[in-house]
Amino acid sequence: AAPGARLTYFAGYGLAEQTRWMLAAAGIKWQQVALQRHEEFLQLRREGKLLFGQLPLLEIDGLNLVQSQAMHRYVAQRANLLGSNPAETALVDMVAEGIKDARGVVVSFPFTDDQEGLAYEVPSRIAKQMGPLNQAIKRRADGTYGFLSSGFSAADVLLAEFAEELSNIRKDALQPYPAAAALHKQVVAMPNIQAYLKGPHRYPFPWGRVASVYTQ
Question: What is the pTM of this model?
Answer without folding.
Answer: 0.91
